[in-house]
Model the fold of this input.
Amino acid sequence: MSCKKLYLENMDCMQVTACVIGCTARSDGSYDIETDVTPLFPEGGGQRSDIGMMNDADILHCREENGTVIHQVTSAFAVDETVEIRVNAPLRRLHTQQHTGEHILSFAYQKLFGAVNVGFHMSEDVVTIDLDRMLTPEQVAEGELYANELLWNNGEVKIYTVTAEEMQTLPLRKKNEKLTGGDIRIVEIEGGEMCTCCGTHCNMTGQVGMIKVLEHIKYKQGCRITFACGELALRWFAMENDMLRKTAAKLSVKPDGVPEALQRKEEQISAVHAVLRQKNMQLAAIYTEKLMKASAETENGPVYGGYVPVDTDAAKRIAEQLCEAEPTALAALFCDDGGRYRYFCMAGEKCEKNCRDAAKVINAALSAKGGGNPKTAQGSFEALPADGFEALLKTL
Done:
């Protein structure tokens, strides 16, 4: 016995009395329940599943299996038991707005630019369509406006069934060639959109509210459009507006002044970085001279190193300068990197020591993690040694 799918006939039906015809326990403690009738839409065709209640138990998900709808429910019900099934109406409306909006936006891009929708996915917070050709930002905006004009015209959304033969005569935007028998469900939106679809849809385009494109990127041979409709679009607007206003307040400007304020901040930061780089070069020169006077002599040449109170870029520069000044030397420098410490090993052109081997010694002594090649190595560790680095340097 198959389940009668009321969402195909009457999308405004949100509650129904049903009879349980199957109940199977799942490994996660929930139950797969089949009923003789349901108003809930099962996940499929790019649309997310409805959720709701079966008596006082939660319906977590629905899927279609062998032509029937299986409800994943938190409680078990006996076969032949009568139950009340209720759809989560706000979530149904949100899903319906997204799916109807997807039809309209896809139609707009195909009509205006010949871009065909080859993929559709609805997630919890956004919807995406994949088009078979790349669109410019201007084209994306033009298609968005055209789609919203169809909403504002508040055209009728018709849903009806045809035979496979009749389907071949219709000007469909997208045909499902796998549909070759039985009744085929058609969604026709006033204004030109028509295609096969099993999802839930608004009765009038105005119920979608609005369609807002959030992003478009290159994807495979075409582009991916990310958008939101109706209530979901409102959520995005509220979130981004809140973020914009908080950013404006931090920058002490009005919202429309944020771009210019950020540009000024970037210029200020770039100027500070330039000064910092100059200071680091000066520090590097000072510490290079200081460390060359306090080298650790070993069998295979001098080892220059120790802790230097500079950033990582300056530490690397000091190591380079030490090796340039004394090609037979090994440089091993340690510095603070925002709460965690780092080490850098560098071997001069004529140095007989191996930085990879030096890194192993440092890792063992400081419980560090790192490695490299014979000429350079680096790593990080959590705490400076209590007795300093003098003894460690002599072992490298």
User: Anything to note?
Assistant: The two ends are 79 Å apart (CA to CA). The chain has three domains: 4-87, 93-245, 283-394.
